[in-house]
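Exercise (ungraded).
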Amino acid sequence: MAEKTYLQAISDGLRQELQRDERVFVIGEDVGVYGGAFKVTLGFQEEFGPWRIIDSPLAETAILGACSGAAMMGMRPVAEMQFADFISCGWDHLVTVAAKQRFRVGTPVPIVVRLPSGGGFSGGPFHSQNPESSFAHIPGLKCVCPATPEDAKGLLVAAIEDPNPVLFFEHKHLYRRIKGEVPDERYVTPIGKARTHREGDDITVITWGAMVYTAEEAAKQLEGDDVSVEVIDLRTVMPWDKAAVLASVRKCSKVLVLHEDTRTGGFGGEIAATIAEEAFEDLDAPVKRVCAPDCPVPFSPVLEKAYIPQVEDVVKGLRELAAY
Amino acid sequence: MATETQVEVVMPQMGVSVSEGTITKWLKAEGEPIARDEALLEISTDKVDTEVPSPGEGVVAKIMVQEGETVEVGAVLAVIAPEGADVSAPAAEELPPAPATQEAADASMAAASEGVGDVAEAASGSGPQSASPAPAPAPAASGSDNGRTFVSPVVARIAAEHGVDVAQVQGTGNGGRVTKKDILAFVEAGGAASTKASAEEPARQEMPAAPGAAVEPQPAAPSASPATPPPPAPPAPPQAAPLPGAQPLAQGEAAEPLTAMRRGIAEHMRRSLDTSAHVTSAIEVDMSKVVAIRAKLKQEFEAAYGVNPTYLAFIARATVETLREYPWINGEIRGDKIVTRNYVNLGFAVELADGKGLIVPVVKNTEGLNLLGLARSVAEIAQRARDKKLNPDDVQGGTFTITNPGGYGTFHGTPVISQPQAGILGTYAVVKRPWVVQDELGQDVIAIRPLMNLTLTYDHRLVDGALAGRFLRDLRKRLESWGESDY
């Protein structure tokens, strides 16, 4: 076991799968010679050759169309969108073809789409989004949002193994900031299982991705108020671990749902609605959401900070719930 | 000038006997700036609905009691802080929870059991001049105002499972709300030998399983500790009703919240009947002279003063004069004493515009008012009652009450005395009736006369029937012999 960054963990997991399974190949913009915009596939082309590490044209439609076809023919493509934001160009292949193929004719479509997502570095409206809820809404697609290096590797392996199209949201802000122990050997982290990032009794925070760390910081501050906050890292948004969430809600009875995506139609709404439906009689306060406002991501560092939920925003929400 | 230190806004004392009030509406949100004396919130007590002004200038730093909640007088409702100040909220203990039962309401509340009693309408007799009631907002009937603090779903469930009356639990949440922790602690305290874990356990076990959600064993459940038997709580009511008396609605039934005013009326009506020995005597009054004089004065009063000399003003004036000779009817039993006065503070039952409440504003020192003064005062205070502009003092200190259930044509009634007074006069419709009178030759003839019935409902503990009869006789005499120059 070695300490690795979030980015290294993804890179290792991908390399191991390329080594283990000949059907696995990588396709994307600048993933070959350049090693990827974020260097996840650095050295891959040398190791696996240009036919398995394919530099594609600047055309997400083509990338995802090729992936769909290859997957139907038995391959295990791993596509990289240079930024998650660009996935909208490939919407039709993903949503109309890949997501529905199994349902329609029974053919599995085992694609993994790696999506460097999230903001916090003044990337502006085209390079900072968290579009997981758009795809969580599409039956037939799975959405994975790891927060730790260990989960990033284990979930990537699970995504590649999975016979369905899986969107793998890797948070750019975590790439080099977050380090953790990652097993060297191959392992699978099951899709659809949440993780208790931090145990508590008074308030449950449900979140995923980079917001797990924001929640953790806020939870620490609440210790000073003698309020014990539990942080549930959903790990996968679709399918999501309803049982784990409801169990925590039943324990704490007060809930804050936190995500970096915008508020309206964000996946937090689905979680809040499910809690209202299935754990109403366990609630001691209204379910609170802390998320980005319904606005494109601003460039300005000041505005971006105001836009992305910060530790103080979560602390404020938690204090309101504690006082309720 | 801005507030230098933070100021607490407290539930004001809205009259000597008012012990609690309900927040009906916040006019400012947290963080909004506010000037000194600017209206901050609206409250409803069993006496009056009114606005509470800000005691200082600055920003609304913290709202401590939510709309719909009922708190005791003196409870901190909000904190006004200087702009930009660091706000420290008062400790939760300073917020007493809403008491379970309504404290004694004041005597000046709601005297007329008939519930009509619209002064202005009745007073104008035939009605065309009656002041049209202003479309006042419904008194404190905002839906959430049921006079109780909010009970969260989990608290309701735990209360039902353990047969706990939530009102008995000391709350530490917002505005004294009972939180899950509070009720669990209460349950725990109730089962002396049991541990906290065992108090929580039954709640978990009886928890309905969420469909499709295979809930794993709670990590918090102390699996190591042997399952102590749950505390000896009374069996849960079958309908899982957390509040006593909250029966489920049957088909076709509808429910609306009991407003603070209605609660006050209900309490006072019942208390009055339990206190006084109510007896009602009635008398018929020939109103010919009053009708004639009123017709004459009406134009003059309206032109000169903008005041309508209503029948009620005539009756009130005659009543005040008559009460002078019957101090016990204007008195009260206070402990082991009979208290009489040298003044008459006259209450008038006024129906609110929405038909959902009754209030009895009091005109003070009517013994010093002539017909014009009485007519003006009654019209003014009745209008303020409908506009919800009454001050607490306006509904206090009455010594005798007049109610007019005859506005819609009724000819008799038995109103309920406004405690602790000794009597209440009921006035009824003026109707033309065949009446036996003597002509100038001393012969009996049948004439058409405008007749009005008056009732005196009195406390037979203090007022004997003969006394009441003499009072009504004298009152009739005053009205029937009203002279043009009498005031």
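Further reading is listed at the end of the chapter. For now, observe: The longest strand of chain A covers residues 255-262. Chain A has eleven helices and 14 strands.
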